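Hi D.,

Good news: the full-assembly prediction came through. Inputs first.
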Amino acid sequence: MSAIHWLDWLSGMLLLAGSVFCLVGALGLLRMPDFYTRVHAASLVETLGAGFILLGLILQAGLTLVTAKLLMMGLLIFFASPTASHALARSALLKGVRPRLVPDSEPPPSKP
Amino acid sequence: MLAAATLAILATIILALVRAILGPTVFDRLQAANTIGTCAMLLLALLGFLVGRPDFLDLALVYGLLNVIGVIAVLKFFHRGDLGAGGEEPR
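Then the structure:
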């Protein structure tokens, strides 16, 4: 009884952490100034957000076939989404999308 | 907590949709589409748990596979201008 309650609490916390990471990644995707920084922010959704949410769902499912399916989803996201992000960034670089850098005329920001 | 996570995923999809509409280059739109696809996978899984039908997980798996294939295919189309082109990449 107590163990089940504890698992529910942990699963809720993991789902909440995944939701926060998804929202932060989406805000970064919307607000970042550059394509490459946007890729960086969006991969937060696909690694930490999806990972935490799937982990929370696994804790709710128990040891059933549902857990196996959730693990397969996690493996798919783990292998496929960095591949897609890498292909996107490489293709953008080959197509001539330049990263936004500090202009040459300005001195680089000095350390305090 | 399941409902809260579902709402967060929906908000994520809306923000990514705004980026897909605004995005200056086609790669921004593709990145937003990729994010929306991943979030749709998570949304299907969460909805399956929320309504007590974990069969939705099969749909989420198929959606994830199609999402990756779709992003790579659209990237190849914009890279080479043709889906059937093979061989070495143009330098």
